[in-house]
Amino acid sequence: MPGILPGPAGYAARVSAVDRPGPDWPGVQLHVVTGKGGTGKSTVAAALALALASRGKDVLLCEVEGRQGIARMFDVDPLPYEERRIAKGLPAEPSGAAGTVHALHIDAESALLDYLAMYYRLGRAGRALDKFGVVEFATTIAPGVRDVLLTGKVFEAAKPGRRGKNARQYDAVVLDAPPTGRITQFLNVSDELAGLAKVGPVKSQADLMMTLFRSSRTAVHFVTVLEEMPVQETADGIADLRRTGLPVGGVVVNLTRPDELDADDLAAVTAGTAQAAPLAEDLAAAGIDGGPDELADLAEHLLAQGRDHAERKALEDAQRALVATYGVPTYELPRMAGGVDLGGLYELAGHLRRQGMA
């Protein structure tokens, strides 16, 4: 509920305090998180915000896709178009201070009304335009303008020396951004507006935003899973950002599976030298109930599962090797049984912190 802060009380035992000496992105203020649909980019963005808060930072977590994903993940009411405190970080040290996580749900229509009020003093008149559908019409026919409005609100939150009523200064902003295939267009707002506005406040705002988006204070992080299509999209997205001069951050390999076999057993299964009969004898020696035929069937079933695991691991290792060639820091997050609840977010935040992402 609004005003009630989920905290670390129930999760401290699940997160190790052994961290890397320092984070990989000490000078970054705006963390943009993107990824192919289904890779868990929103979860990673939320975990990153908590990880940064665990370092004592006050963090703003933003979303721009209209799905109210932040509210669901943090188990709070749907977010309005205003900054709202939703969680506390887990301190990196037992005696350390934790920061807080605020959240902001940004929609283009509300951002345009803000823009009209700021630059053209259209307060009530702007709201009247919204009633007549003019705002929705304007943001639909000009997608470039829509992106400027969405990113503009993020830029305003990230810039130092914010002004205005209740304006809060954040140490870091985390943006749950659009998917990989659209991220370059979304951030490269100056070029996207080139054919629409060559002068005026919209163009000036876009140019100003690009000074942040192309600077070392911004990092665009990619989320992938160890499958061919997401890994290839990540490679394409990194190449696109580099071509347009936008700063590439790290790659988070999400939903990794644990090793279910030790190295020797995995080698035997892979080589086809593992046999069912010795495995059935081991099952009997371990006290598994069943007659010889039942244990033999169980052993065959286990061997089949082992071969499937070995094949899947070989494919994943091949994709992991590709990610390692991208020349950026990489981090891994485990697949969590039963999905990710609030406690799971804190646990994932601990993984990111220990690996140095935050």
TrEMBL record:
Gene3D superfamilies named in the record: P-loop containing nucleotide triphosphate hydrolases (3.40.50.300)
Top-level taxon: Bacteria
One Pfam assignment: ArsA_ATPase
GO molecular function: ATP binding; ATP hydrolysis activity
Domain ArsA/GET3 Anion-transporting ATPase-like: 32-205
Protein known as: ArsA family ATPase
Species, as recorded: Nocardioides zeae
